Structure formats: structure tokens, C-alpha cells
User: Fold MOSC domain-containing protein YiiM from Parasphingopyxis lamellibrachiae.
Amino acid sequence: MMGKVLAVARKPSHGIAKPKADAIRLIAGHGVEGDAHCGVTVQHRSRVAQNPDQPNLRQVHLIQAELFDELAGRGFSVVPGDMGENITTRGVDLLALPEGAELALGAAARVRVTGLRNPCKQLEGHAPGLMDAVLDRAADGTLVRRAGIMAIVLRDGEVRPGDEIVVHLPEGERRALQPV
Assistant:
């Protein structure tokens, strides 16, 4: 499975939208250099309040651009970075990846998928109704989160728009993504 990086973004302070960048640097075990969520331990404010010593399983946030296309058809104007993601992709069904899948990004960077992003109320600040628009219900009634995936950085590297994404699926039993 292969795709492309459409856009990259980072923001040194907390808040939902992240400005696009020409490139971002991923740092193994930490995340996106210069981003508020970079660190070995959890950086998300509500999670820090619960337990600041938790490992940071949310070092990199990825969203597939196909979601933006769908949202546009429903009247929402969302562009890369608006939902707080670091990497916007095209051509890879991120939500269908199993836990532990690895993504090779560009020439050197590599991340491991840890789980689903749990969308937060801050999305409402971008557009009323956006949070509900990225949530759905499966046939059995379970909540389906579609606001992207989270990953940890395994290997340093620079990531730029246009970079290739190569998916490496884990061997053995594959577990569906859960919120992290």
C-alpha cells in the first residue's frame, strides 16, 4: 500500500489549527520537532493533568485528505492543518490500518501507528458541527472516530509534501485501532 504526503504542519503552542510548513523533522521517540506535542511523555493537556508520566503515544497526528473531500461535500471548508494534524496524506486508508502498522515517510522517517485520534470539542471552534461530522456509528452502534490516527516516531527524518508513503503491515494477528 502506497500513498503521498499532501501537506505537513507543526505548531509550537497548543491549539487546534497548525500552520502548514515546507517540511517537518520527525525525531525518534519524541515526535515533530517544534510541535507542542513533541516529547517522550504525553503532551496533550488533559492527559498531562491525569498523569504527566504516561508515554506519549500521540507524537504525530495523521489525517487522510479524503476526509476533507467528504467534509467539503457536506458543506465544511477544511484544509490541511485545520484539524491539528501534522501530516495530511492521500492514497492510504489510514483508518483501516491495524495497530502497529509502520509508515515509511520520505527518504528516512518511519512511524508506528498507535491508535485513533479521539476528536475533541476544539473542532467546533473551526466550524460548528465539525466534531459530529467526524464521528459516526457502526451498524452495531459503536462509535466510529474518523479524525485521523496517532503514531510514534521510530526513525528520524524530514517529511515534505510530495513524499511517498509506504505502509508496512505487522505480522501475525492484526488488531483494529482504538482511541489513544
